[in-house]
Amino acid sequence: MILSKPNHIKIYGHRGARGDLPENTLESFKYLFDNNFSGLEVDILFSKDSVPVITHDFFLDRDQTKDLDGNWIEDEYMKINSKTYKELLNYDIGAVNKLSSYGRRFLNQKSLENQRIPNLNKLFKLLKSYETEDLIINLEFKSSPLISNLVPEPIEIVKLVKQEIEVSNLSDRILVSSFDWRVLKEFKLQLPKISRGYLSTQQELKKTRKNIYENSPWMGFIPFFNNSEIPEVINNLGGIAWHPFYKDIKKKNIEEAHNHGLVVNTWTVNRESDMMRMIEYGVDGIFTDYPLRLKELCEKENKKWF
């Protein structure tokens, strides 16, 4: 697996290319590969019948989901795991409601017709149809130690995807990540050859709880440590990559991570000024909703990308 190259930035399309096309759709993934990007980040949850599906939120998002009559759904509490995969196919995720606060963030996102929530198997089939050099698929497993009945327990999460990953012939191209480090512990036990990236945020965001603090259940109740020691903690857990929130880090944190042999991929960086700062800090990879924007910035600054 090639996670980094000297003096290069690895560009990961976040949820496909959310700034340009509807997130976590097969068309959004195709868009990346048609534009010669080799890094892809997707989110994994599970349907009622235990199918690994590619979607971000524990609940169907009213701002991005229509019924088959073309109406935006109204119920904000329809859990992904309350519906079978066949039932999930009764919803169209090919547009964002531009009148919503979420939609106003992505006013230039193109709408597509007849887009359904993909499952992991469909993604793997798509990837095999492309001969993509330096391909890396980041599978982010959504989970929470604070809320029950949204996803299977970590041991079951890995069991449910283990065979599919093993038969995909893509194991050496897969990087698994999660804010819930218990899931990564299970991957280490059940699929030790799969590379692991440890997601972190040290601040509360609108839809993302911070997971880095003393005795955090997200981290597996690791006792007191300084934030500067996060790379050391991840290294001791056998991680290959650290995925910090870009607002949490300084150049010295990247240097410390590199001293521990970790690749640093930071998320989710959309403004050019922030992209430039991450490049100057020396990160290895950047997750972005606007991969073309980052590509153009790299070329403008004579920075190699892959």
Structure description:
The protein is of the alpha/beta class and 306 residues long. It has a single domain (8-58, 117-305), classed as Alpha-Beta Barrel (TIM Barrel). Helix content is 28%, strand content 17%. It has helices at residues 26-34, 85-88, 101-105, 120-128, 154-167, 181-190, 230-236, 251-259, 272-281, 291-300, and strands at residues 8-14, 39-46, 52-54, 66-67, 91-92, 136-141, 174-178, 195-200, 241-244, 263-266, 285-288, 304-305. It is globular. The mean pLDDT is 97.
Summarize the model shown.
The protein is built from 10 helices and 12 strands. It is of the alpha/beta class and 306 residues long. The chain has a single domain (8-58, 117-305), classed as Phosphatidylinositol (PI) phosphodiesterase (TIM Barrel, Alpha-Beta Barrel), CATH 3.20.20.190.
Low-confidence segments, given as residue ranges, are: none
CATH architecture: Alpha-Beta Barrel
Indicate the structural class. Answer: alpha/beta
Task: Write the CATH homologous superfamily.
Answer: Phosphatidylinositol (PI) phosphodiesterase
Query: What Rg, in angstroms, do the CA atoms define?
Result: 18 Å
**Under the CATH scheme, which class?**
Alpha Beta
Number of domains: 1
| Shape assignment | globular
